[in-house]
Design goal:
heterodimer, A: alpha+beta, 10 strands, 25% helix, 38% strand, B: alpha/beta, 9-stranded mixed beta sheet, 10 helices, 40% helix
Chain lengths: 254, 283
């Protein structure tokens, strides 16, 4: 048998195998190449969700701290009606914050009034855009209050006070300090994944691996943890979902 | 060699190649079928889809090939024969009026409590249909192993497509389970429920469902893929992909932590609130 005949036979066999492989690939891979007809949906792209709690006009919104502490952080934001949102740029509102010890005694109480701004007032300082799905109104910018009591408190209570007519209602979130001090703070930092460490140290001039141990401990020491209200949702408190979109994503919207 | 005989040889080789390729693709089964877990061909899947659509619209319709129909008072059950475990799945269809909701548990057994939860919800009167896997994810002596969510032509996909065809404004919910300790990101580790659509651009209906779950099941943490969490987005789920291809917007993929699954099975009140969210927005 001549060499060219053998070569032709081998070539034909190889071609047969390639064709058979192609047929299998076509059958098994075709579904992976099919179109996604929902790919054009971008209306809520790049959004994150967070929970907020309604501060009642009557009654109290009660939060239990995980351990007695003297420091509490409160973020509040008034929801504004559609007409007022279009015509005004700031709204005054208030709430009463009460901190109680484990026996129910008041260790701190104060009426806190704030002047919440329309987000457009702060441009060109770029802030994330916060909104509520299906709502015609708006959400004013967050206000922050850090309260310090003389004695450790176990419970924080919030009640809404008077507000401008454009304010529909008030949302709030309460935070407590994470109990990391000294070496426990450093240990907590080192237990995080590399991605989380990068996230924690994103405001630092150096990459995470070059941040000193003292800075790492400080990053964990200055952290707050959000806490939820006491009771049953719908009966003792109301939860709502607020969406947040980066300013750049908002600018890119048609 | 004369030009005519050379051309004849080339034609002969190409013809032989074509015949061999066609015979190979027709006669040789994919590896999944070689293991025993049944993955129907595209033609068989189309027939199964038509049969499921008939089942969902006609109380007297015949079941798809390989499934036996058992008629209950209000429920029809389609299941494999006990001695024929090939992983086609088990399907329940309610004959009385119900919200256009299908509750699927494709990994019953490996995702603990998801099958029990689907059955409990259906038993509570929730949804028009329910389904779960009939073979384990990993094979046993008595049953071949396989994952229905990885096959575009599986009976579960055919059922999902038939449900979407007969209930275009309905919702198909897949219940899954995850272990937060094995997740990469802190967001996933802290989440109790991760809601996704198998897409990077979920639609409004998925956010409706997620918002309802957040409000009704607080303080459980409900995260939406991809905005809140970048894991467990069901991007490889073949039912979700197939449903998106036909333009169905009601697919929801729920990953639940073990305590959540356990609580939903044991706590009827929480299960009722959970079910109300699954039915939100459905006529």
């Amino acid at each position: 048998m001549r060499l060219t005949t053998i070569a032709k036979g081998v070539g034909a066999a190889a071609l047969c195998l390639a064709a058979a492989g192609g047929a299998f690939a076509l059958r098994d891979l075709r579904p992976l190449l099919s179109p996604d007809r929902t790919a054009e949906r971008q209306s809520l792209g790049a959004t994150t969700r967070s929970l907020v709690y309604k501060v009642p006009d009557e009654g109290v919104l009660r939060f239990a701290l995980s351990r007695p502490t003297t420091l509490v952080r409160i973020l509040s934001q008034p929801n504004i009606g559609a007409r007022s949102w279009a015509s005004q740029s700031a709204w005054v509102y208030g709430y009463c914050a009460t901190m109680r010890d484990a026996d129910g005694g008041i260790v701190f109480q104060r009426d806190i009034y704030s002047r919440a701004l329309h987000p457009s007032r702060l441009r060109p300082f770029k802030r994330p855009v916060r909104f509520r799905r299906g709502s015609q109104g708006g959400i004013a910018l967050l206000d922050e209050a850090v309260l310090e009591s003389d004695a450790p408190a176990s419970v924080v209570e919030l009640t809404a006070l008077d507000a401008d007519p454009g304010v529909v209602d008030l949302d709030a979130r309460v935070f407590e300090r994470l109990p990391f001090i000294g070496s426990t703070a450093l240990s907590a930092y080192l237990r995080r994944s590399p991605e989380e460490q990068a996230q924690l140290s994103r405001s630092d001039a150096f990459p995470p691996e070059l941040v000193s141990d003292a800075e790492r401990a400080a990053l964990m020491s200055n952290r707050w943890r959000v806490i939820g209200p006491v009771g049953i949702p719908g009966r003792d408190y109301r939860v709502d979902v607020v969406y947040e979109r980066p300013y750049e994503a908002e600018e890119a919207r048609p | 060699m004369k030009p005519a005989s050379r051309a004849a040889r080339i034609v002969l080789v190409i013809g032989t190649m074509s015949i061999v390729a066609i015979l190979a693709s027709r006669l040789l089964s994919p590896l999944d079928r070689a293991r025993g877990f049944l993955v129907p061909s595209a033609r068989e899947a189309g027939q199964a889809r038509e049969a499921f659509a008939a089942i969902l619209t006609d109380a007297a319709a015949a079941p798809p090939a390989g499934l036996r129909l058992t008629q209950g008072e209000d429920i029809r059950v389609l299941a494999e024969a006990a001695e024929d475990c090939r992983g086609r799945g088990t399907y329940l269809v309610r004959d009385s009026a119900a919200a256009p909701l299908a509750i699927l548990a494709p990994h019953r057994g490996s995702d603990l409590d998801t099958g029990t939860l689907a059955a409990a919800l259906f038993d509570d009167g929730i949804g028009r249909a329910a389904a779960w896997n009939s073979a384990p994810r990993r094979g046993k002596d008595t049953c071949p192993g396989g994952d229905p969510t990885r096959h575009a032509t599986h009976h579960l996909t055919a059922f999902s497509l038939a449900f979407a065809q007969t209930h275009p404004q309905g919702r198909i919910v897949q219940l899954h389970g995850f272990d937060g300790r094995k997740r990469d990101s802190r967001a996933a580790r802290l989440a109790d429920i991760i809601v996704s659509e198998g897409s990077e651009t979920p639609g409004e209906r998925l956010y409706d469902l997620a918002d309802c779950l957040s409000r009704s099941l607080h303080p459980w943490r409900v995260a939406v893929y991809p905005g809140d969490v970048r894991e467990l987005g069901a991007l490889r789920n073949r039912q979700g992909r197939a449903l998106r291809e036909i333009g169905f917007a009601g697919f929801a993929h729920l990953e639940m932590a073990r305590p959540v699954r356990r609580a939903l099975v044991e706590d009827a009140d929480r299960r009722r609130r959970f079910a109300r969210c699954l039915e939100t927005g459905l006529a």
